[in-house]
Amino acid sequence: MHIVIMGCGRVGSTLAHILEDKGHSVAIIDQNPEAFRRLRSGFKGRRITGFGFDRDVIAEAGIEQASAFVAVSSGDNSNIISARVARETFGVDNVVARIYDPRRAEVYQRLGIPTVATVRWTADQILRRLLPEGAEPLWRDPTGEVVLAELDLGPAWVGDKVAALEEAARTRVAFLSRMGEALVPEADTVIQDGDIVHIMARADDLERVNAAVAARGEEDV
User: Is residue 210 within a helix (H) or strand (E), and if so which, with residue range?
Assistant: First the structure.
């Protein structure tokens, strides 16, 4: 595929290198030509100086042949405008925009622009390390309503089946991490000591899920 990236910061340059290593052609846009210094010397993609929402600039980057467009500059408005130009003017279906203000995520979602809210994601990662007990989100959908969360079960659940956990907590187990490997469980999969359980749930259900899981430990005391 040919992929156009707007923003040659740390995220944009990292994406460019990963995509090129996977065999895709890449064009990267930045208004500051000094930003291209983040690209490795052997980078074969196109470097375009300009604004990603300028039609002539993204046309020069090969947007008409692109299968995807990614906007990861430092400005929310620039990212959204350029993503809309890529989709609405040039017909690119696969677009993603990074935003710093998670409150805008729902608005952008309604416009059909998938977004990544970096501030909320970073805050969630820090909270997971500061407050490891309970379910803390690893990922949120753009609206912030649905989360993938790591659940701290405790020893009381060892030996129980995944179905029992789902019934007690009224949630869905997405996968387990066991001995460093990911496992998609069946209903009769038995929870083992050391398993890390990941659930999919509504964000406002996490407190209830934590309480249901903790109740098992209290019963055994």
Answer: helix 206-219
DSSP 126: H
Q: Give the C-alpha separation, 16 to 24, whole Å.
A: 9
pTM exceeding 0.85: no
Residue reference for tokens 């002539």: 56
At 29-41, the pLDDT tens digits run 999 999 999 999 9
DSSP 8-class letter at 189: P
Burial class of residue 71 (count of CB atoms within 10 Å of its CB; 0-12, 13-18, 19+): buried
Q: What is the pLDDT of residues 140-168, one digit of tens each?
A: 776 668 888 888 787 889 999 999 999 99
Q: Rounded distance, CA 170 to CA 4, Å? A: 42
For residue 180, what are its two tokens? 């460093």
